Task: structure prediction
Amino acid sequence: MKKKKINLRDLKPNSEAEHNHDDGHNHSGQPNNFKAYIPAIISFSMLFIGIVLDYFDITFFKNGVRIIWYAIAYLPVGFPVVKEGWESIKKGDVFTEFFLMSIATIGAFIIGEYPEGVAVMLFYAVGELFQNAAVNRAKGNIKALLDVRPKEALVYRNNDYESVNPESVEIGEKVQVRVGEKVPLDGILLSEKGSFNTAALTGESKPNTIAKGEKVFAGSINLDGVIEIETTKEFKDSSLARILDMVQNATARKSKTELFIRKFARIYTPIVVFLAIGVTLLPYFFVDDYVFRDWLYRALIFLVISCPCALVISIPLGYFGGLGAASKNGILFKGASFLDAMTKINTLVMDKTGTVTKGVFKIKEIKAIDWEESEFMKYLMAMEEQSTHPIAKAILEYKAEGKDYEASEVFEIAGKGLKGIVNGKSVLVGNKALMTANNINVLQETETIVESIVLVAINNKFAGYVIIADELKDDAKETITALHKVGIKNIMMLSGDKDSITQQVAKELNIEKAKGGLLPEDKLNEVETLMKNPVNKVAFIGDGINDAPVLAVSDVGIAMGGLGSDVAIETADVIIQTDQPSKVVKAIKISRSTRKIVWQNIILAFGVKVIVLILGAGGLATMWEAVFADVGVALLAILNAVRLQRMTWS
Result:
């Protein structure tokens, strides 16, 4: 999936105070800047004084003075809206909220309802300020990411470290990072070990300690000692840039609910305008005591209520809040549409290696026969030092007491194992075929072991074995339990690993359906078969290049972002930054909370509007009720959407 690259220098925190809605409305402002509030404060002060003067029936506050006073009160908040409405009309977009608010408030002035005309526009302006403040709050996570952008990199050039812009650093260069500094680019650790704060990238506050040769990500903060890394990616391709890109572009991919509401608002608004004209003129033919001013007032109320602000503001804000809450928890949705899609998932298919397991071989069991375990392992480790196989690496992590042994005359027997001399004794290390070829009798119990097993013979006698297995991730078991609790009953594991190992892992995790020994096309066929049933809404979790086809075809593709391949991450719809499968459960909960709040806002906005529209048409509602039905409901919906930023999901 081709992604648009971004220039990180163009992403400035100040620009976050501006946002555009696809409905053609452009709301901009910087609520944290006091200047943004000055027009509303002036209008409110003058409106309040005017109402007091009206109440006490002050003599000088009559006729022309009163009109001029309220006109001046109207201008600070009204002029920008009227101007925006006129600009929209010139572009051919007539039925905008600016047009509705302008006609309604100017109409209120025409019929002498000056305070109400000012009040409607004032509350609308205040609603805009609240909206901008809410959006800025929702964008706090993006700003936090922007704040962790490293400003410089200490690169080893010309026999010395020099400070340069991270964007000028090339792949393969050596970079030094001091304590408290941010890692400028993705790379591998050259120092023996390092401890990093990766909270801005993963949402995890716990320090992450890694060893020499392991990956280090841009934006991580070095916590312990001066370290050196070798860069593996350019700055624009780093994990930090990728996160920024995905979060920045996520809001462009609208949900179906959001798109429907926008289309609906464009149809619904002109209908209400024509209904308002009908409310003004049609009663002339049916009412005996028809008074044009009264029916025009009702029509103006109708117009104020019809403004779709509460919908077109609060619904995108709800989804934005969901995206922000997810990124705060180390989960990146590539668009609001995937928040919606995640709520419908009822079938979850997962890869094994690197998804529910750590993808790293570890010693699971050591069985030495007639040997002390430590002594037995010294013979085995001496032989495995001659091998580069991942299993050898796992064995060499064992800590044996005393001085290590050295192997000599070691040679490899293709497809079987190693043969050599250790401590004056002949040693065989390998599989069953190697033992059989050398007439070594092994224990019967080794036949039932499904994991990778290393058999050892010393001086032509079976000495024992070591079981090597891929460890389950710490949260793998609780993930399956939690998935069942949130209603995901149909869980399936597909793996390229041996079927016997896949079945054993599935049994440990309480997954009923599992298949191993699969090629990438086999995984794809399995998922496509599931998707042929329209009842199934399938999410697939994977991390490797071989998972990319399945990630692309599933309803929701979820990739492990830490250890996962770049291809899988680019193809997926949702990225788990921490590589923890339990985050999938949290992603489902966040999606459901977001959808719940969005629908609460839809029902609130429509419910109140319909009630006040009916009251307004019947002459039972004033402009003040209309203000509540529009701006008041919009504010309530915004506050409801902001709740997502405060929620926690266990």
Notes: The longest strand covers residues 357-368. Residues 1-32 have pLDDT under 50 and may be disordered. The chain has 22 helices and 24 strands.
